[in-house]
Amino acid sequence: MSEYRPPSAFGMIPPVVKNILIINVICFLAQLNPMMNGWLTHNGAAFYFDSPNFRIWQLFTYAFLHGSSTHLFFNMFAVFVFGPPIENYLGSKRFLTYYMLTAIGAILLQSIITGYQVYSVAGTFFPIHQGIVSAQELPYPPVIGASGAVFGILIAFGMLFPNMLLYLYFLFPIKAKYLVIAYGAFELFYAVQNNPNDNVAHYAHLGGMLFGFILLKVWKIRKPGSYY
């Protein structure tokens, strides 16, 4: 059992993690411009698939937009802390594939849940195209943020380095596998509450974890030191 220490210098960060950090910061700086923010949200945020604003590329572009500096910081901090050992173990190409597929998987699960909620109220998955409600009246705002992919990174860390000691709030040591289980349980609890005042896409977080778990199993990725 050992303690995990994140990279101590930016130059030590592997290339995909480094570029994820840079691209997200650049996109957020662009969002600070009111004119650019409107264009980026309209074209890059993940709209419900019945919305006239929906575009197929939004399934991954949404993961590079953020709603606030706090939103950006915590997501990128998690990528910075947990991403490097996973990229070093999987290799840069596979890690990039993993990151993007968990982002897509996250929004797919969120969209499925949203579709179910829309159907339970409107009796159809396509209330906008059928003229039941307008796009403005649909109570499901577009989704933005890298959190789904971040939760994919978290479950990968927990599966590949389950006994690595992490320090919760920099004070309390906890094994990675238990921290990941706790995060998953937390997200599931809040997801099923279906609180209309909660604007966090909890099912996207769970989707990132689910798709990450499936990918590692399909790829037959074993934790370091494991043998067939």
Biggest pleated sheet: 2 strands, antiparallel
Count of beta strands: 2
From the spread of the alpha carbons, the general shape counts as globular
Q: What proportion of the residues form beta strands (DSSP E)?
A: under 5%
Element order: H for helix, E for strand: HHHHHHEEHH
CATH-defined superfamily: Rhomboid-like
**Reading side by side through the largest sheet, how are the strands ordered?**
1-2
Rounded to the nearest angstrom, the distance between the terminal CA atoms is 22 Å
- The CATH architecture term is Up-down Bundle
Give a brief description.
The protein has a single domain, classed as Up-down Bundle (Rhomboid-like fold).
What does this structure look like?
With 228 residues, this protein is mainly alpha-helical. The protein has helices at residues 15-31, 34-44, 58-61, 69-90, 92-122, 147-160, 176-193, 202-218, and strands spanning 165-168, 172-175. The protein has a single domain (10-109, 140-218), classed as Rhomboid-like (Rhomboid-like fold). It is built from 8 helices and 2 strands. Strands 1-2 form a two-stranded antiparallel sheet. Strand 1 and strand 2 form a beta hairpin. Helix 1 packs antiparallel against helix 4 and helix 6 (147-160) packs across helix 8 (202-218).
